[in-house]
Amino acid sequence: APVQVTLLCRSMEVNSSLQSRTSLLLMWSLGMAIMFLIRRYDLSKFCPYNTVLMDHSDPSINTVLTAPTDKPGVALLDFVIFPPRWLVAEHTFRPPYYHRNCMSEFMGLIYGGYEAKADGFHPGGASLHSCMTPHGPDTKTYEATIALGNEAGPHRIADTMAFMFESCLIPRVCPWALESPFMDHDYYQCWIGLKSHFSGLSMNEDNVDLQKGKPIER
Ligand SMILES: O=C(O)Cc1cc(O)ccc1O
Ligand SMILES: [Fe+2]
Fold it and tell me: Can you give the residue ranges of the Homogentisate 1,2-dioxygenase C-terminal domain (predicted)?
């Protein structure tokens, strides 16, 4: 079945200068009908973009819907998805990099697996990495990726649908969520055992030059 996400979009604002209660009520009921337009998107029709040579793009490249702020490039809320796609990048750590952002990230998995989490992130699960919280792939994903080496061929990530809401605002977690029996108190364990694989030895000549601080001449 196609994955559909229903979003409520506020497209008008109530005119607060209206004085009469009756007209306010009338406006309100009318407003409910007009202001909140229900949109349905079949996410399987979304065409994802990805790098075709090297590096891992910022995930906002897969924004399905955005609510902008008045600052160019700073979204109030981006709705981003991670659908099935091909991974082809060379000389690149392909899973999401280890990072922390100004933006806060709320992620969820609709079905399948998520490329950064080999264990523990199941469909129906969600994670929140608030502003400046470091995160990235779990230890198992990291080790498996390193074991593949630098010459991994094209790889298709199939049967998956993850989503993310990214916002420049910091979400406040409600007590209901904090007290939920479904809260994963051991989430941090997914990074236990991470060890550095940086050896100081280069994989190719470009890296030798870069490590010596020399620009690459072509
Ligand atoms: O944290 C995450 O898993 C989401 C995410 C995915 C990605 O491909 C790059 C950055 C990022 O925050
Ligand atoms: Fe992230």
Answer: 44-198
CA–CA distances in Å: residue 27 to residues 8, 11, 36, 81, 175:
18, 14, 13, 36, 34
Tell me, what DSSP letter sits at residue 217? P
> Do the domain assignments include residue 114?
yes
Q: Could you say which of 56, 91, 129, 197 is catalytic?
A: 56
Q: Residue 37 sits in which domain range?
A: 1-12+19-45
**For 98-144, how does the pLDDT look when each residue is reduced to its tens digit (9 = 90+)?**
999 999 999 999 999 999 999 989 999 999 999 999 999 999 999 99
User: What DSSP state is assigned to residue 206?
Assistant: H
109: domain CATH number? Answer: 2.60.120.10
Say whether the ipTM exceeds 0.95: yes
Two tokens at 149?
């080496």
